[in-house]
């Protein structure tokens, strides 16, 4: 397959999952700092990327990627000098910086003032976006205001699995609108600061009905997980079945629907749904997909789901901007000779190329702190020994390097 000359091969990480350094350069606490994780683990050190970023950029240079997608920590707003150093070093090594402004690490002070349930948080986020844009827009190649708002809404506010740990079910829907509004305001702020290219990174999953009688359940789930965070950005609308639950004010949808230079898809697996059992307050129930291999996270490995999702996006939104796969990867064990990860990446990269996307970012460059699962899940092309912080490239690192060259 002939790729466009500007096809972008990359890797992705997020600040909270790798940086550590909770008390450096005036960082303030985030909602995740003390949130319960696997066996009581915390990200206070994580991969110590804050102090070892030079070593990690050298790994990326050896890997041969054209871009590195990282996130800026909102809790570090008081001093952004670390990101100045990181961006400059990336550019010195021929790697395009792709900056995500928000990967779930809400400052605790913002949460205490209402968090994403409060409309004012969208304005506070826009101020943060303006400050980061003023500092870095002259050097960052691509911007993503908010990563995976669906996961923050559903896991963080609807069922309490992620920070801030709220269990609100459908009463969490105002969070979705405030995140979409914050996205639009941040796009405006970044463009005012001179940002070169602004897009988004939404988590998407094909919704499969378990039986022909479960189509309505799959439709309801897709509206909530996929279209609630796509339609307002690309069409200035909300799914009809959810719109009357959202605190929309006059002019909001014109803000959410800012023109985008690219659209990021984070894909891991499809989801199978059935009609809810009696007493279930939700209009669907999740059903195991057991006819495919599973990752260590028990996620089914279904490469064709990636191309299925990109096709669905283009059918629903014919004006879809150029698509990048901004996250795609898998968790397996400690193994350095990780043949299963290679097979996963091979299948998903081929599905992405078949779908005609403009770039592919592997999640993740290195093993990291996997939110409520702590250090129990390893997504890295690079193995991290959390006791010594030694980095060891896995076989998948060499495979991806060779794939990029080829």
Automatic annotation (TrEMBL):
Looking at the record's lineage, which domain of life comes first? Bacteria
For this UniProt record, give its keywords in alphabetical order, as a comma-separated list.
Answer: Carbohydrate metabolism, Cellulose degradation, Glycosidase, Hydrolase, Polysaccharide degradation
Leader sequence residues: none
Major enzyme class? hydrolase
Q: Where is the active site?
A: 148 (proton donor), 327 (nucleophile)
Question: One GO biological process from the UniProt record?
Answer: cellulose catabolic process
Q: What is its EC number?
A: 3.2.1.21
Q: Which PROSITE patterns match?
A: GLYCOSYL_HYDROL_F1_2
Q: Which positions does UniProt annotate for substrate binding?
A: 17, 103, 147, 268, 363, 370-371
Any one GO MF annotation of this record: beta-glucosidase activity
**UniProt keyword Ribosomal protein, yes or no:** no
Reaction(s) the record says it catalyses: Hydrolysis of terminal, non-reducing beta-D-glucosyl residues with release of beta-D-glucose
One term under GO cellular component: cytosol
Looking up InterPro entries in the UniProt record yields: GH, GH_1_N_CS, Glyco_hydro_1, Glyco_hydro_1_beta-glucosidase
Q: Is Hydrolase tagged as a keyword?
A: yes
Give the family from UniProt. Answer: Belongs to the glycosyl hydrolase 1 family.
Name the record gives this protein:
Beta-glucosidase
Task: Name the species this protein comes from.
Answer: Saccharothrix variisporea
């Amino acid at each position: 397959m002939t790729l466009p000359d500007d096809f972008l091969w990359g890797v992705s990480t997020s600040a909270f999952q790798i940086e550590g350094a909770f008390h450096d350069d005036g960082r303030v606490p985030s909602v995740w700092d003390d949130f319960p994780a696997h066996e009581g683990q915390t990200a206070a050190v994580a991969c110590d990327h804050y102090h070892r970023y030079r070593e990690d950029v050298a790994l990326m240079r050896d890997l041969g990627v054209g871009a590195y997608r990282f996130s800026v920590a909102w809790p570090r707003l008081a001093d952004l000098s670390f990101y100045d150093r990181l961006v400059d070093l990336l550019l010195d090594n021929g790697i395009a910086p792709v900056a995500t402004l928000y990967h779930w690490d809400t400052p605790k002070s913002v949460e205490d003032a209402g968090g994403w349930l409060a409309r004012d948080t969208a304005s506070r986020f826009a101020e943060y976006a303006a400050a980061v844009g003023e500092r870095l827009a002259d050097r960052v190649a691509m911007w993503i205001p908010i990563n995976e708002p669906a996961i923050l809404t559903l896991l963080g506010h609807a069922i309490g699995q992620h920070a801030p740990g709220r269990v609100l079910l459908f009463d969490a829907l105002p969070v979705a609108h405030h995140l979409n509004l914050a996205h639009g305001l941040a796009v405006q702020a970044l463009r005012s600061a001179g940002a070169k290219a602004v897009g988004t990174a939404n988590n998407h999953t094909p919704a499969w009905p378990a039986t022909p009688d479960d189509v309505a359940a799959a439709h309801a789930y897709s509206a909530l997980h996929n279209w609630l965070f796509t339609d307002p950005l690309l069409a200035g609308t909300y799914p009809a079945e959810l719109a009357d639950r959202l605190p929309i004010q006059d002019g909001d949808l014109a803000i959410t629907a800012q023109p985008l230079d690219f659209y990021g898809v984070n894909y891991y697996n499809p989801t199978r749904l059935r009609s809810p059992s009696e007493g279930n307050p939700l209009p669907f129930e999740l059903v195991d997909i057991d006819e495919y291999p599973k990752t260590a996270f028990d996620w089914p490995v279904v490469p064709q789901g990636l191309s299925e999702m990109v096709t669905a996006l283009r059918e629903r939104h014919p004006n879809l901007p150029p698509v990048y796969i901004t996250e795609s990867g898998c968790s397996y064990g400690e193994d350095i000779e990780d043949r299963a990860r290679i097979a996963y990446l091979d299948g998903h990269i081929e599905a992405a190329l078949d779908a005609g996307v403009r770039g592919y970012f592997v999640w993740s460059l290195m093993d990291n702190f996997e939110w409520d699962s702590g250090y129990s899940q390893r997504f890295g092309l690079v193995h991290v020994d959390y006791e010594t912080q030694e980095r060891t490239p896995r076989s998948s690192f060499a495979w991806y390097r060779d794939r990029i060259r080829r």
